[in-house]
């Protein structure tokens, strides 16, 4: 089994690379197994230096290169009649310290019906969609040193010290 152990800053354009589509949850881990789009199983054991962003490249000691894509996953999509309404929703969701993906026309977060109801209460539209999840790297991204905690639980654990 090929084991990918390093991150690459850049890859020359003409390099043929395989890709692997990974969920946000997996892309936060430094060690995991995955199956490439071609069906081959691989292992990943990276230095712990943050989330693998979509479009990132990783490599084996032997020089095999792999491109990481964000896999579409079930998300809540928030849309609003005006940019200001969307801004307001981003503020309220940000206050809850949940991983939040921002785009010019919509916000995305992992399925959470309590948050969805709150956002609907602000007069915005919420729907479940399949979409790659690439949240803002915020404070929660720095809390990955305790891998037993989810990013949200890590926030709450650190907040009570």
Automatic annotation (TrEMBL):
GO terms for molecular function: nickel cation binding; unfolded protein binding. Keywords: Chaperone, Cytoplasm, Nickel. Pfam families: UreE_C, UreE_N. One of its GO terms (cellular component) is cytoplasm. InterPro entries: UreE, UreE_C_dom, UreE_N, UreE_N_sf. SUPFAM superfamilies: Urease metallochaperone UreE, C-terminal domain (SSF69737), Urease metallochaperone UreE, N-terminal domain (SSF69287). GO terms for biological process: protein folding; protein-containing complex assembly; urea metabolic process. Residues 2-66 form the UreE urease accessory N-terminal domain. Its main location: cytoplasm. It is found in: Cytoplasm. The keyword Methyltransferase does not apply. Belongs to the UreE family. Involved in urease metallocenter assembly. Binds nickel. Probably functions as a nickel donor during metallocenter assembly. HAMAP family: UreE. This is Urease accessory protein UreE. It comes from Acinetobacter shaoyimingii.
């Amino acid at each position: 089994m090929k084991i990918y152990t390093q991150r690459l800053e850049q890859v020359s354009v003409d390099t043929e690379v395989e890709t692997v589509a990974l969920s946000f949850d997996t892309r936060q881990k430094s060690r995991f197994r995955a199956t490439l789009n071609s069906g081959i199983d691989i292992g990943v054991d990276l230095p712990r230096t943050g989330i693998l962003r979509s479009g990132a490249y990783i490599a084996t000691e032997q020089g095999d290169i792999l491109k990481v894509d964000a896999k579409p996953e079930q998300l809540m999509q928030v849309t609003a009649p005006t940019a200001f309404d969307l801004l307001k929703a981003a503020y309220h969701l940000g206050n809850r310290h949940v991983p939040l993906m921002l785009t010019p026309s919509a916000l995305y977060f992992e399925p959470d019906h309590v948050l969805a109801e709150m956002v609907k209460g602000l007069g915005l539209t919420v729907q479940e969609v399949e979409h790659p999840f690439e949240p803002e790297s915020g404070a929660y991204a720095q809390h990955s040193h305790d891998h037993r905690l989810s990013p949200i639980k890590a926030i709450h654990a650190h907040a009570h010290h």
